[in-house]
User: Fold this.
Amino acid sequence: ILNVEQSPQSLHVQEGDSTNFTCSFPSSNFYALHWYRWETAKSPEALFVMTLNGDEKKKGRISATLNTKEGYSYLYIKGSQPEDSATYLCALGNTGGFKTIFGAGTRLFVKA
Amino acid sequence: DAEITQSPRHKITETGRQVTLACHQTWNHNNMFWYRQDLGHGLRLIHYSYGVQDTNKGEVSDGYSVSRSNTEDLPLTLESAASSQTSVYFCASSVKAGVNEQFFGPGTRLTVL
Assistant:
């Protein structure tokens, strides 16, 4: 059974702080790594998809990196704002069946 | 604009009843998925489909079934609802499973009394 681990489970930061979370996954049969942003009472929305070792993606103040050899991805938020408060999910797409396995998420709270 | 919708948005039912949750997408995606969201578990895959007439079990499929008679719809049926199936259910679709992003519906909150 594939396991996608995210840490920390939750995080409280002050407005303006920069922060990062980790997603760990089994590196065998890797196909793609996804990050989603999930606001309370809404649906998850895709942020990034990365497929190559060393990939880096950026969208505004949010960026992500990928290491497929050691099986981890980092998501960074620079200068956190209250509107960044959400659950950040990572998801592994693998070649064994082409399913997407989601981690449990990191819940970010940004205090003004 | 293409979208993915779910109905009903909220449902209360009794133990033992059959319940069907609808999912409809206009993206023309071949791949569709059903997840449940429970505290501490994130999203868990119930069933998925790679195309018409194709259905597959996910990690928590017991007590659920799906059918795929056309590209647009993947209804989820709870054969005999149990209190353990109280949850929020999300439907999603994607171009290519595992690689492309999934587009999620708004969710259905199901309560089984």
